[in-house]
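Tutorial, part two.
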Amino acid sequence: MAEVISHAPSGCPALVLNADFRPLSYYPLSLWPWQEVIKAVFLERVDVVAEYDQYVHSPSLTMRIPSVIALREFVRQDRPPAFTRFNVFLRDGFECAYCGSTEDLTFDHVIPRSKGGRTSWENIVAACSPCNLRKGGRLPREVRMHPHVRPHRPSTYELQEIGRRFPPNHLHATWLDYLYWDVELEG
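Running the prediction step on this input gives:
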């Protein structure tokens, strides 16, 4: 469960919203460092939605550091997600597809490469090291190890929905109106 903080998180990152006021990404949460945010504000690429109580100073200007910004131009998110180790783990909920463990994850070719299996969304699953070693270069039926889920190419929307199950440890109070996680208020 995420904890809500009222002080600025370390480094004062800003939550980045698309032009429709939805986060660009839930996992990892779309955050920009304050320096990039200030530059985007002056280049008129974003609108400031909320601010921290901290200030940044220059010789000619004092400005509160933005905590939530919205892009002025909508960024389409309908392109297929990249095939990466992280995205495979995210698709599989950071759990071994064979036993459900969340420890020591690797990825496994369901049909081993030695038997013609490809490195693709449709043939790769997250697997803990013990399951991966146990299965080795054999087919699932040969070792009676079948993945709990069918490996598939996820949509960007699907990965975002899965990512919402994994909130960061700390969320700034100004971000809450734009995020949808179960949160606990700090003391």
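Strands lie at 2-5, 14-17, 31-32, 46-57, 62-71, 105-109, 124-128, 170-172, 183-185. In part three we will examine how such features are distributed along the chain.
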